[in-house]
Write a structure and sequence with these properties.
With about 60 residues, the protein is of the alpha+beta class. The chain starts with a helix and ends in a 9-residue tail after the last helix. It has one domain. The protein has 2 helices and 3 strands. GO terms for molecular function: zinc ion binding. It comes from Lupinus albus (White lupine). This is Putative histone deacetylase superfamily, Zinc finger, UBP-type, Zinc finger, RING/FYVE/PHD-type. InterPro entries: Znf_RING/FYVE/PHD, Znf_UBP.
Length: about 60
Amino acid sequence: MVHHFESNHTHCVALSFSDLSVWCFSCDAYLDPHIIPLLRPLYQLAYLLKFRQDPPSTFL
């Protein structure tokens, strides 16, 4: 997944609000927002909107 972040800045991704998973359509794979720094703000915002609290610090 780190390789994905370092080499593919143009891939289209989607975030599922049901389980907060992130999917890359080009790679046909799930991405881990805990490993890919660019996805962390999106994940944090989605978590806040879903649970009305910040994500636990152990997730980030």
